[in-house]
């Protein structure tokens, strides 16, 4: 059992102070697919966008566990799931690889802006013809003097329309080989980079998403993260933290939804009794409780294992699978318990369902996670 110290608790409590600010107008922003930049700036003012990064570059220097604890608090406080998702994308997909694999020059140049929220980060890995098959990517990067020339495209780039920095994964070697991919740090203004229009989607509407196109995009060789050919090493490091950060936010959201549903079930009277006294309703709420506790335990236990240097491949897959499925079940149960009110847009619960479905797709679909677990069990090649 993890025991949080006073500094960790104070850091998490600072997020709660923003609860009203972050949640104000979230239904309208979702309806209009509006990224709430003012709220992003408020999160940045607390230092949350620099949580796990070096203090000398403006970060807070926190470990993975503390970062998760604070992000769970963000999920609990903030009803704008899209904004929280943009935060986790920024932290895991851009800040993390720069902090871990960037040269001293890259860190000095970019990390202060990343930590302060002046620079918004994204990463580009998925392609139109190669969704979960990262080994099948077609975007290429060819060495040309002290630059690399990138050609190709990426799809479903979270934070893409608002990003100032994008970590782009491109093929620098033979296709289908893990050692043939390299990670590049790309600036928005670099010639040859084109942003597609923002894409309308089912949920997480306040977290904008688009396609990216590379047409002889010249990236300085100094902007390589790690080494040439080590892109999958970078991606593996990033994805572990992306799953831990993104889905611990979901745990906070599920905890808030559980508390809200319990309160409703105690106070909503039908046929002379609170609806929570009826077994069918109580069972749904118990399922919500089990889901949030199981998800929390898997995520934090996995983070401890990751921090100890042990192989956490299966644990990451199970954590992602358990939490993403529990989030969908939690949202559906909350809608059902709230009945007609749950189905109405103004109560925000139907939005939770739409947001939760995304978690079964991004960071590796439910089917991909099951396949990964089956492989580790020796059932598949």
CATH topology assignment of the largest domain: Butyryl-CoA Dehydrogenase, subunit A, domain 3
Spatial extent as radius of gyration: 21 Å
Q: What is the domain total for the residues?
A: 3
Q: Work out the oligomeric state of the chains in this entry.
A: single chain
Strand order of the largest sheet: 1-4-5-8
Write the CATH homologous superfamily of the largest domain: Butyryl-CoA Dehydrogenase, subunit A, domain 3
H and E string: HHHHHHHEEEEEEEEHEEHHHHH
Strand content: 5-15%
Tell the overall outline.
Answer: globular
Secondary-structure-based class equals alpha+beta
Give unreliable regions as ranges: none
CATH class label of the largest domain? Mainly Alpha
Main sheet properties: 4 strands, mixed
Average pLDDT number: 96
CATH architecture of the largest domain: Up-down Bundle
Count of individual beta strands: 10
Give a nutshell description of this structure:
This protein is an alpha+beta fold. It has 13 helices and 10 strands. The protein is 52% helix and 15% strand.
Task: Describe this entry's structure for a reader.
This protein is an alpha+beta fold and 381 residues long. Helices cover 52% and strands 15% of the residues. The protein folds into three domains: 115 residues, Butyryl-Coa Dehydrogenase, subunit A, domain 1 (Orthogonal Bundle), CATH 1.10.540; 108 residues, Butyryl-CoA Dehydrogenase, subunit A, domain 2 (Beta Barrel), CATH 2.40.110.10; 145 residues, Butyryl-CoA Dehydrogenase, subunit A, domain 3. The strands form three sheets. A four-stranded mixed beta sheet has the order 1-4-5-8. The chain is globular and about 80 Å long.
């Amino acid at each position: 059992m993890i025991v949080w110290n006073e500094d960790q608790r104070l850091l998490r409590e600072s997020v709660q102070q923003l609860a009203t600010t972050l949640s104000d107008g979230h239904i309208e922003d979702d309806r209009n697919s509006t990224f709430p930049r003012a709220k992003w700036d408020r999160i940045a003012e607390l230092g949350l966008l620099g949580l796990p990064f070096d203090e000398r570059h403006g970060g807070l220097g926190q470990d993975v566990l503390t970062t998760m604890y604070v992000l769970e608090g963000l999920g609990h406080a903030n009803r704008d799931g899209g904004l929280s998702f943009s935060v986790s994308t920024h932290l895991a997909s851009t800040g993390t690889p720069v902090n871990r694999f960037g040269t001293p020059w890259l860190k000095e140049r970019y990390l202060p802006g990343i930590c302060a929220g002046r620079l918004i980060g994204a990463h580009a890995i998925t392609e139109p013809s190669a969704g979960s098959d990262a080994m099948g990517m077609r975007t290429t990067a060819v060495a040309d003097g002290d630059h690399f020339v990138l050609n190709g495209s990426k799809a479903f780039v979270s934070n893409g329309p608002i990003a100032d920095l994008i970590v782009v994964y491109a093929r620098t070697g033979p296709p289908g080989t893990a050692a043939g991919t390299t990670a590049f740090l790309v600036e928005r203004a670099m010639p040859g980079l084109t942003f597609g229009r923002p894409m309308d989607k089912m949920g997480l509407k306040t977290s904008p998403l688009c396609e990216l196109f590379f047409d002889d995009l010249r990236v300085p060789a100094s902007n390589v993260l790690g080494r040439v050919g080590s892109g999958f090493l970078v991606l593996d490091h990033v994805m572990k933290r992306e799953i831990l950060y993104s889905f611990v936010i979901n745990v906070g959201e599920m905890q808030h939804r559980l508390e809200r549903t319990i309160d409703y079930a105690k106070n909503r009277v039908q046929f002379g009794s609170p609806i929570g006294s009826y077994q069918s309703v109580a069972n749904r709420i118990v399922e919500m409780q089990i889901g949030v506790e199981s998800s929390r335990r898997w995520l934090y236990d996995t983070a401890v294992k990751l921090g100890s240097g042990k192989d956490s491949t299966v644990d990451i897959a199970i954590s992602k699978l358990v939490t993403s499925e529990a989030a969908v079940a939690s949202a559906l149960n909350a809608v059902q318990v709230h009945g007609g009110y749950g189905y109405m847009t103004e109560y925000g619960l139907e939005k939770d369902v739409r947001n939760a479905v995304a978690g079964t797709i991004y960071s590796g679909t439910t089917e991909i996670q099951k396949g990964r677990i089956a492989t580790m069990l020796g059932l598949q090649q």
